Automatic annotation (TrEMBL):
UniProt keyword list: Membrane, Transmembrane, Transmembrane helix
Record GO biological process: transmembrane transport
Residues passing through the membrane, by range: 12-31, 38-58, 78-100, 112-132, 162-179, 191-210, 230-254, 317-346, 367-392
Cellular localization per UniProt: Membrane
Protein name in UniProt: MFS superfamily sulfate permease-like transporter
């Protein structure tokens, strides 16, 4: 026991994580439009492969609800055989980025963009799974899913089977919400698993006319991508690969940062964790399975259950493997509305309602980025929505970094004194020029730039042109004091005449 001092804690935690992961692995696979077994395969790889590797000791990897929308779109567009190529390429890119030590740079991504991404995913996931709870087929695009909900509700009201399915899905959500209010002893069984078990029991007891999971068998579900799948790689699929890579990496590394705050053990080594995720995704791609990320729900359950080392996440992979090998037929008992209900609940938890409110009060610009990113993902698609959020974040940062103040002193006689301080960039150039051009043309002007910390080329050129125009009206030439940081030859207070 001295060699494994925490074996008891890790063993117990691994069982808890297994029970949390099982319905989520199956649910994510079904919602992604792939065989249920592929979700289990990704969970097994996340435990047995990524779980062994260095990086983060306590976070757990597997198929994530956050990638469901992207996977569904990819499978719908390129077909299931192409999924292996996409995941394989994304895994190799993660390995390369980890080797180049780019993992830490993901922490530089605006939290508002990441939360907006998760919110957008959550909205599309909820909308799509609401159709599934009623046994209806969801439209393809995110905006169509949302706009089509009233019509879907009308269709469901006219069908006994749809109403039964919807009631079972709603009951699943209710069980998961109310499960948290039960005594801690009862909560030893995860709410998602309890909801699935109750749904199976209700379906069997009342012979409910609802669809259940289709089972193919573990080995039959494994479809390594063939040469023809690689031959179909084009520009469109490359964009999907980049989207998989960036979103999976960001979600995993942000999850690692969150898990680090939950325990006092070793901190995450971001580059190694990125390589661990890459190794897992590479193998998932070879097996034709779902992509993986580190998942905060399973990771927090792992920490809360008392896990101390990576043994807990490895063992959870063992339990998933044993279940898939020994009890695969059990999957056929799970009603699809129950899995849809679990994912509606998961999608709701992806939407950061509290963060939006607090951001709006303290940092409205960040709140705007979050909302725009989420809306863009719903209205356009995942990849372009994230790019819009990143671009908006960069523009906001550049705008805030270009604070500049123009102070004009006019004593009524003698030259007008204009003092510029801060950071003069092209973003503030229109405002600067508007103020300078409003100065009287028949008065000499002294422009003091010594208070500037930064003066970009566009601003410098524009100021020189303004000085030439102002000096050409017959007044004294504009006297400009150069910024000290831009010209080491100028000294404080030195006057440079621009003719």
């Amino acid at each position: 026991m001295t060699k494994f001092p925490y074996l008891r804690q890790d063993f117990t935690a691994s069982l808890v994580v297994f029970l949390v992961a099982l319905p989520l692995c199956v649910g994510v696979a079904v919602a992604s439009g792939v065989p249920a077994e592929l979700g289990l395969i990704t969970g097994i790889v996340g435990g047995l492969v990524t779980g062994f590797l260095p990086g983060s000791s306590l976070q757990v990897s597997g198929p994530a609800a956050g990638l469901t929308v992207l996977v569904f779109e990819a499978v719908d567009t390129y077909g299931l055989p192409a999924l292996g190529v996409i995941v394989l390429a994304a895994g190799l890119l993660q390995l390369i980025m980890g080797a180049l030590k780019l993992g830490r740079w993901f922490r530089a991504i605006s939290v508002s963009v990441v939360e907006g991404m998760l919110a957008g995913i959550g909205l599309v996931l909820i909308a799509g799974q609401l159709y599934a709870t009623a046994g209806l087929k969801a439209p393809a695009s995110g905006i169509d899913k949302i706009l089509g909900l009233p019509g879907a509700a009308a269709d469901a009201l006219g069908s006994t089977k749809a109403l039964t399915s919807l009631a079972l899905g709603a009951a699943t959500i209710a069980v998961m919400v109310l499960w948290k209010k039960l005594p801690k002893q009862a909560q030893a069984v995860p709410g998602a698993l309890a909801a699935v078990i109750l749904a199976i029991a209700a379906t069997a007891a009342f012979n409910l006319p609802v669809d259940t999971v289709k089972v193919q068998g573990l080995l039959d579900s494994i479809q390594p991508p063939g040469l023809d799948a690689f031959g179909g790689v084009g520009v469109g699929i490359i964009g999907t690969i980049i989207a998989f890579t960036l979103i999976a990496s960001a979600e995993s590394l942000f999850s690692a940062a969150a898990v680090d705050r939950l325990h006092d053990g070793p901190r995450t080594e971001y580059d190694k964790e990125l390589m661990a995720q890459g190794a897992g995704n590479t193998l998932c791609g070879v097996l034709g399975a779902l992509p993986m990320t580190a998942v905060i729900v399973r990771s927090s359950a792992n920490v809360s259950a008392g896990a101390k080392t990576k043994a807990s996440r490895v063992l959870h992979g063992v339990w998933l493997l044993l279940f898939a090998a020994l009890l695969p037929a059990t999957l056929a008992l799970i009603p699809l509305p129950a899995l849809a209900g679990i994912l509606v609940h998961a999608g709701w938890k992806l939407i950061p309602f509290r963060q939006v409110v607090s951001l709006w009060r303290a940092h409205r610009g960040e709140a705007l980025i979050l909302v725009v990113t989420a809306v863009s993902i719903v209205a356009v698609n995942m990849f372009e929505g994230v790019l819009i959020g990143l671009a908006l974040s960069v523009v906001k940062t550049a705008w805030e970094a270009s604070h500049v103040k123009l102070e004009v002193i006019d004593k009524g006689a003698g030259p007008i004194q204009a003092y510029l301080s801060g950071n003069a960039t092209f973003l503030r150039l229109p405002k600067i020029l508007d103020n300078l051009e409003s100065l009287p043309q028949d008065r000499p002007v002294e422009l003091d730039l010594s208070g500037l910390h930064h003066l970009d080329h566009a601003c410098r050129t524009a100021l020189e042109n303004w000085a030439e125009r102002h000096s050409a009206t017959g007044t004294e030439p504009v006297k400009v004091t150069e910024p000290e940081l831009e010209s080491e030859q100028s000294k404080e207070g030195e006057k440079v005449t621009v003719a």
